[in-house]
Amino acid sequence: MGWFGASIKRKEDPAFLTGRGRYVDDIALPGMLHAVVLRSPHGHAGIRGIDKRAALSLPGVHAVFTHADLPESMQRQTVPLLVPSPTIKQALMPYCLAKDEVCFVGEPIAIVVADSRYLAEDAAALVEIDFQVLPAVSDCAKGLKPGAPPAHRGSPNNLGAFIPINVGNTDAAFAQAAHIFREQIFQHRGGPFFMECRGMIAVPDAVSDALTIYVASQGPHRHKRVLLDLMEWADHQLRIVTPDVGGGFGPKGSFYAEYGALAAAALAMRRPIKWIEDRHENFLSTQQERDQYWDVEIAVDAEARILGVRGSLTHDAGAYLPWGVVLPWIAATSVPGPYVIRNFHLDVSVAFTNKVPTSPVRGAGRPEAAVVMERLMDRVAREFKLDRAEVRRRNFITPAQMPYKVGIIFRDGRPVTYDSGDYPVCQRDALAAVDYEGFRARQVKAREEGRYIGLGIGNAVEATGLGPYESATVRVSTSGKLTVYTGATPQGQSHKTTLAQIAADHFGCTPDDITIVTADTAATGLGVGSFAARTAVNAGSSVHLASAQVAQKIKQFAAQMMEVAEQDVVLENGYAKVAGSDVKRSFREVAAVAVGMPGFSMARGPSPGLEATSHFTPDQSTYSNGTHVAEVEVDIETGHVTVTRYLLMHDCGTVINPMVVEGQIVGGVIHGVGNAFFERLIYDDQAQPVSTHFGEYLLPLATDSPIVEVLHMETPSPLNPLGLKGAGEGGTIAAIAALLSAVEDALEPFGVHIAEAPITPQRIVELLGEHALGRTR
Amino acid sequence: MKPPPFAYHDPTSIQEAADLIGRLDNAMPLAGGQSLMPMLNFRVVAPDHLIDLNRVAGLSYIEIKNGTGRFGAMTRQRDVEFSADVAKAFPVLHEALGHVGHRQTRNRGTIGGSLCHLDPSAELVNMAALHDGVLEVASRGGRREIKIADWVRGIMTNALEPGELLTGVTLKAWPTGHGYAFEEFARRHGDFAITAVGCLLTLDGNGTINRAVLCVSGMGPAPARVAEAERLLIGAKPGHEAFRAAAIAAQALDAMSDAYVTAAYRKHLARVLTYRALQRAAARAGGPR
Q1: What is the CATH number of domain A396-459+622-777?
Q2: Which of residues 256 through 285 in chain A touch B, CB cutoff 8 A?
Q3: Using an 8 Å Cβ cutoff, are A673 and A698 in contact?
Q4: Min Cα separation B145/chain A (Å)
Q5: pTM for the structure as a whole
Q6: Domain ranges in chain B?
């Protein structure tokens, strides 16, 4: 072992930094046409007719595809629901192109194909659609009230799913509580807003009914599965490749209706067709996380120990259920976090609205859960006049209780069982690092100067490394080249570096000697893709196991070739060497022997070929955790918040590359800053999106981003061979909770209570009332 | 997000540009393009002709003499921001330009483009109002001048007649040593301000304010001079009472609401920013700090 754990530079960077990345939009093919997706301008409408004559008469326009032009199998089937659940009451999914009803602004109605994107946009404006505008549902809570219009014509109501979560006996716990406190919290998380928008090129095969598709995704194998269903095709007819990807954050993992329509259009026209989502479309059509209304109560004993939590969550599903109920399920089941909560009852209502469908965005409902739990802990501390850290300390799950069963069934189908972690030490060390004990004195001094500073704490536990598996095939080519083929699909996570680090240690070579081929359905038959902080655990373990097998085969073949015992062979710098001697064989020589010679029988021993495939299948999720500490200063006259310090202690098990983890964490925290203060998708009451560009939907800029101090603990997971846990989302999950807590702490002299995210300067001024007049009073 | 079709024209003289804009139907001039290009890509505007002013000679200049500053319409914001002469004669303009977008957009953005586009929060329109700006306009028929008070006809609507082109603006300088300040509040660095306040003042030998202008942006379609605040300030001693009274007068202006910002918050910010601007301006004029 030598590369594992080292902060080496990323293999990906030289190409990315010198403009040699290959993204979907970098691909240009001979004869390629350009498509525009014509989308609904209405939140809810019936379609009575489509007249495409004017559009087709424009020079350079080749075709306008509507629902009626799709293959029969696509006219008959909607996009399949990949994650069914018995809690789903109405399993509504879209057709690849709208049939006779559109249910959100942005829903695809037609594909316009032309010589250029410019012409396709001109033509799209000429397609005449006879809409019957219908009442739309904009707010998820209002949509569930009696008398609300249905988001889908003919639906009895807007309840998409109902998930009752019950642990212990909540009523009994509340009956014996010393105190009960209630919090009503509105939370909004925006969209993924990756730098590279979505995009796809569908290329028909020259000789058969088959397609090669290049798509910016988080997992081509899942897209292939969906498209095989929609086309009613066999495996060999479809190859899907995901080249370099500029960010995903969750919603790039979904299969979007237009992907099916674009595939059908390319097949029908026998020409490659490129579609690149522009930023305006990105706001209208890429899935978001959006609104949740929480109404919760906490019951505590006289010592501020939690007896139970109960309440309800109303979740804005949007128009369809692309990920089933995964997002609200994760939000609900993540509420207990690092605390002992024996009694927990939450009724989760998943409500259809006429808005873009929602699906997990980095953190996937956990940030909302952390906000709810941490707001409750702050409330208990305030009511008891106890230190906020002390209240948490009294309620932490301790290492002695590991593995700890929370009592809930997680979305992986297994009981939520925390495998490992030391939450009390994590918080203790994080607080020590920011001189928590000295903060009150600093705060008092600042207030004397008319400055309002605050400190917030956010703890969270994160289910990571979700199954079912990830593929890794490790192969030594007869040229001696070492390659790992995997279904893992990077969007910036550095998989090509970290997976190579894992493999390199098995072969006595450097990560640069190993090529990592990701996200190509022709390279690995099975694959799942990257989401849920799962690639290190799943793909990392598979690479580790497959590499060990291939390394052993090299030794076995080389031992035969050199006539020594297998245990005397070591792998070094591309050679199988006899330990302590100069006798060696190159990987190239060994690989040639391993594939055999035509007509000659193989020698007895290992099976042919220097390759092995592993699909590591974790038994359950593994649980990362962290403590975030935020310090802020609030300008009470404008409501502006400056994050003055940000530190977190993070435990994601053993770390493959600390620099890569730190990059993930820092980016995640900035994402949390956006969610806490800036990012808000506004819709009007007819579900028309108002925030459709970056002038109005605000992302944090460099000038809004704190310097993030990252400290690591390493509690190895017992659930996989390398002790890994996921690291992709931990930066975001507790960030919003910590930041809201810090703002509330800063404004403590004015009795301001924060129960919403994002919290804007305007809202802070409203909450401050007369106090916001400050010096101008 | 691709522009609709348009014909592109590339004149090299003011006369040629004026001739094109007078002759062609549905034509728009292109200055720095920092607002127009996104509007074209969003298909918010669909001109048949785009008249690019970037190669027109004689539209980019800074001339400061005899208490006035003349600025060509195509003068880049960055050139004004980094002019030592501007910093000396119009220090508030120098200060305000730091808030106009980002350094990269100021490389391209022009004085005239901003004055014509007339975003309600535009810093440069506020500056023109503070310094009694006079806009110079050319057409095939000749030239005319429009006072800043007559320039704004409505939200993002200027007073240019069809066939007219803005060629420059003249600002009146204040005496050396005058107090000045520009304060704005935006969500992020470089964003359009929610509310912004510019002010200029001078003190007499007794330390009494003898001249003051105060202009608030972001509240309505155009920056508003706060006559009541100016009246209250003149003759007053700089200090809490005077600043507070002026701030309350600024708060009393009418304000717009939109999907993001309430009128009440804009008005609140007008009060806070006015107070802050006056504090800084008075200190710079030699008053109490």
Answers
A1: 3.30.365.10
A2: 278-280
A3: no
A4: 34
A5: 0.97
A6: 7-52, 62-172, 179-284
